[in-house]
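User: ARH38 factor. Structure?
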Amino acid sequence: DCPGKEGTGGRKRNLTLLRNKLYMGQRRRTEPVVESTTTAEDHGNLRRSQSDRTEYSQKLQEKMAPQAVSFTPATSPQGDEEEEVSRRMMARRVKIITELMQTEKDYISDLDLCIKEVIQPLRNKQIARFDVDGLFSNIELVHQLSAKLLSLLEEATTDVEPPMQVIGEVFLQIKGPLEDTYKIYCYHHDDAHTMLESYEKDEELKQHLRDCVQSLK
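Assistant: Predicted structure:
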């Protein structure tokens, strides 16, 4: 009975040892699997991390894209501002030319009145002591030259777009006659002024001048 019992006990111990060996063997076999699984997860996490970074980069580019697009029109206001400055300069140029022509028209009108209402009547009176040509110098030639200048200005601006209106050429064209005419007028200016002062001291001559001036009103 004892040996049998010992045999039975030995078998139990042997089974216990066998189970322990099997457990250790299974543990050794499963541990590499667990480690490889963990490594695979790590690689998966790495791939996900790279994918996340790529996705983040794409989203960042998408967010930046509208800013880049909005930056392009940022130069547009500058272009609009330059266009506005150019437009204002052109409008100012047109205004200056218009005022120049209107001034010339008014000047010609005044000269015309002076010739018709003052010079011609005084000549017609044929006053011996009154030097009409000495008093008014070459004012009739000034009138003719001013009319020519206005005609050239009108020719340069009528039916011509503002950017194509070349006004400087007009003055270059008439520069010589203007200088020659006004040199004579300016040369006699002081003498004419002295003559007028002397005429105003003479009551008869002064009355003739007063009558002419009154007709202008």
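The CA atoms of residues 135 and 192 lie 5 Å apart. The chain is about 90% helix and 0% strand.
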